[in-house]
Write a structure and sequence with these properties.
Largest sheet: 8 strands, parallel, barrel
Mean pLDDT: 96
Radius of gyration: 19 Å
Bound molecules: ligand FNR
Length: 342
């Protein structure tokens, strides 16, 4: 199976598979303030990650590139990002490092959005040399290093060896020349992972929890024969991952992602201390099914609703949401109790 076919399969199954998993967001609630003493007009959505200022905490998470038809998808994502003034990431650039003919499928995002904040993407085993080439390829402002062990193990042609990654991440963080974001792809993170990441010197971490796009399920659809079906619910939800991160809030700029569908989910991530919020599947669907204009409308609406929530909480900035109490119930509360977190 070629890398190009795999990239197309990922988009196809991400669109086809239902979103059935719980993200844990329904276990979280804000406490309503009937007298918030705030004005909608004063609300700022500005934030920063890795020392870079962002005018919105919403970013388009890594999705695609690396096959002919993905160039048009990345072009549309870049138009959306440009229109809405949000940061965006490309999908793994490994394909273009192997085959320079595929560079344009990623480079389009910089061509469409010359002044935007763009994030490159490679797997966490990348060398410093490859990381520099990926950054240069698209003029990236930051670089993702993704962790996707469950996906690789489910993928028939996937990696089977995962030792030595911590040292490789450390070298890229030190040598690549732009801030690095270590991210999962939908299985979440834990205290154990944050502790190890702290040793690498990385400053930005995207928890990418369970509950949205499910790569084990996607790879199962691509397998012939027996599937790894019981692994489809592997990992921590986004809510649990952010709660596990509480003692690391001063160490990392956290990005909340994985199953974020709307402004309420995004606000809950911010209230748990995330500095930014990533969306992948929830943007890909309207973009592919309805087009850029509708996706822009959806994003504008998400920003309006986020401003409303910030106002309701008596805050002037999205970052102040982190000072507000969040009620945690159900399975998410049980997890925290058993683990002694948050
Ligand atoms: C992804 N994702 C992803 N992540 C990554 O680091 N490198 C990649 O190449 C890809 N490829 C990719 C393709 C497609 C079609 C989708 C939908 C997603 C994972 C993505 O960045 C994100 O972490 C997960 O999708 C979870 O977020 P959502 O989709 O639940 O918002």
């Amino acid at each position: 199976m070629s890398i190009e076919q795999r990239k197309l399969d990922h988009v196809r199954y991400a669109l086809e598979l239902p979103i059935s998993e719980s993200t844990g967001f329904s276990d979280l609630s804000f406490v309503h303030r009937a007298l918030p003493e705030s004005d909608l007009a004063d609300v700022s959505l500005a934030t920063s990650i890795g020392g870079l200022d962002l005018s919105s905490p919403i970013l388009l998470n890594a999705m695609t590139g690396g096959a002919g038809p993905t160039e048009a998808i990345n072009g549309k994502l870049a138009e959306l990002a440009k229109h809405c003034g949000i940061a965006m990431a490309v999908g793994s650039q490994r394909a273009a490092l192997k085959d320079p003919a595929l560079v344009s499928t990623y480079r389009i995002v910089r061509d469409v959005n010359p002044d935007g904040i763009i994030i490159g993407n490679l797997g966490a085993g990348a060398t410093v040399e490859d990381a520099k080439r990926a950054v240069e390829m698209i003029g990236a402002d930051l670089l993702h290093l993704h962790l996707n062990v469950a996906q690789e193990l489910t993928m028939p042609e996937g990696d089977r060896s995962f030792s030595g990654l911590v040292e490789k991440i450390r070298q890229v963080v030190e040598g690549v020349g732009v801030p690095v974001i270590v991210k999962e792809v939908g299985n979440g993170m834990s205290i154990e992972t944050f502790r190890v990441l702290a040793e690498t010197g990385v400053k930005v971490v995207d928890v990418a929890g369970r509950g949205g796009t499910n790569f084990v399920a996607i790879e199962n659809r691509r397998r012939s024969g027996l599937q790894f079906q019981h692994m489809e619910s592997w990992g921590q939800t986004t809510a649990v991952s952010l709660l596990e991160a509480q003692e690391f809030l001063h160490r990392f700029d956290l990005i909340g992602s994985g199953g974020v569908q709307n402004a309420h989910d995004a606000a809950k991530c911010l209230a748990l201390g995330a500095k930014a919020v990533g969306l992948a599947g929830a943007v890909l669907r309207p973009l592919m099914e309805l087009g850029v204009e509708q996706a822009v409308e959806m994003m504008d609406h998400l920003h309006s609703e986020l401003r409303a929530i910030v106002t309701l909480q008596g805050c002037r900035s999205v970052l102040e949401l982190a000072e507000r109490p969040v009620m945690v119930r159900g399975e998410t509360a049980q997890w925290c109790q058993l683990r002694g977190v948050a």
